[in-house]
Amino acid sequence: MANRVSPTYDDITRRTVPDPDSSMRPSKDQERQAFEGHRAMDEVESALHARVMDALRDSGINWQNITIEVERDRVSVRGNVEEDQDLRRIPDLIRGVEGVGDVDDRLVVLPGGAAD
């Protein structure tokens, strides 16, 4: 029996959608959110997220390559940073924000110290 290759999204669309130009293809961000299990934050979580983001903006740390997620009082931080010292500074900064209970730290330093 020959190995069958799974069809791509485009293959399926060409066979099943009468007018492929009218089909909505998810963005990369939507695909990532679906894969990671994105959920909407409530008002308290949104307010905590805003306070964490304000603290990061005011810190002078390059936070452009990190993602902050909030679930209840738990803040998850993921992404890459430019310097080793930021591996400690960012989680410590987040812990100091009012309302943060726990920090799930998933930060890494990119080789060569250059975050893209």
Architecture overview:
- The protein is an alpha+beta fold.
- The protein has a domain at 43-110: 2-Layer Sandwich (Histidine-containing Protein, Chain: A), CATH 3.30.1340.
- Helix content is 40%, strand content 19%.
- The chain has four helices and three strands, in the order αααββαβ.
- The chain has helices at residues 9-16, 28-36, 43-59, 84-95, and strands spanning 66-71, 74-81, 102-109.
- A three-stranded mixed sheet has the order 1-2-3, covered by helices on one side.
- The protein is elongated.
- The N and C termini lie far apart (45 Å).
- The mean pLDDT is 83.
Name given to the CATH architecture of the domain at 43-110 = 2-Layer Sandwich
What sequence of helices (H) and strands (E) makes up the elements? HHHEEHE
**In total, how many beta strands?**
3
Spans with pLDDT under 50 lasting ≥5 residues?
none
Alpha carbon gyration radius: 20 Å
Strand content: 15-25%
Distance between the termini: 45 Å
Name the assembly state. Answer: single chain
Treating each run of at least 4 consecutive H or I residues as one helix, how many helices? 4
CATH class of the domain at 43-110: Alpha Beta
Overall geometry = elongated
Helical content class: 25-40%
Structure classification = alpha+beta
Strand order, largest beta sheet = 1-2-3
Major sheet summary line: 3 strands, mixed
The CATH topology annotation of the domain at 43-110 reads as Histidine-containing Protein, Chain: A
Nearest-integer average pLDDT = 83
How is the topology of this model organized?
Blueprint: H1 9-16, H2 28-36, H3 43-59, E1 66-71, E2 74-81, H4 84-95, E3 102-109
Parallel strand pairs: 2-3
Antiparallel strand pairs: 1-2
